Amino acid sequence: MARYGMALDYKSCINCRACESACKAENGVLPGRDNYRIWVGQKEIEGQFPKLSISSLTYQPSQCQHCDNAPCQQVCPTNATYYDENGVVRVNPEQCILCTYCINACPYDARYIDDRTVTVDKCNFCSDTRLANGETTTACQATCPTKVRTFGDLDDPNSDISKLLEKREYKQIKEHLGTKPKLFYLL
Fold first, then answer.
1. What confidence score (pLDDT) does residue 125 get?
2. CA nearest to 165, candidates 29, 5, 17
3. What is the C-alpha to C-alpha distance for residues 62 and 166, in angstroms, rounded to an integer?
4. Which domain holds residue 153?
5. For 86-135, how does the pLDDT look when each residue is reduced to its tens digit (9 = 90+)?
6. Contact between 20 and 40 (Cβ < 8 Å)
7. What is the count of structural domains for the chain?
8. Which of 25, 26, 58, 96 has the most Cβ atoms closer than 10 angstroms to its Cβ?
9. Each residue of 56-74: pLDDT tens digit?
10. Which CATH number belongs to the domain containing residue 148 in this structure?
């Protein structure tokens, strides 16, 4: 099987939010700022106190980091949060009891309560839609006009993401927590 991840060339993001709209449409997520699987944040200040500078505005697309060592999975009392055969962190809505332990445990703020199912939801790399239909990319990647996102199999050395990570430097968010995120922010 594959081990999926995503690289984000975040400095190319123009904040058009096409990725957010495509994700909501693809996955049936209700409109609204509080309902999200992916989002675009803003980063305005760089440096460390007392040497801070206001840089040009940088947008930072984000979503579930699909950690190899996911705190949300570890705290789920019903095993509703689980890893599928491709290493994607998923939520089984039929097992979710809405205890919200996973929401509190996620250091990336990547989960929300789905008002339709009254369960916790999050990005699943379009596993139920695109990947289940044999497609090889996510809705957010397919719709991005500036090609910010590259999705693929991290274990396949010939995949676009593996080739990209081989030649570009990257960072991972909150890597120090030991979650082993599978989102890579290209420098």
1. 95
2. 5
3. 21
4. 4-186
5. 999 999 999 999 999 999 999 999 998 988 889 999 999 999 999 899 89
6. yes
7. 1
8. 96
9. 556 777 889 999 999 999 9
10. 3.30.70.20
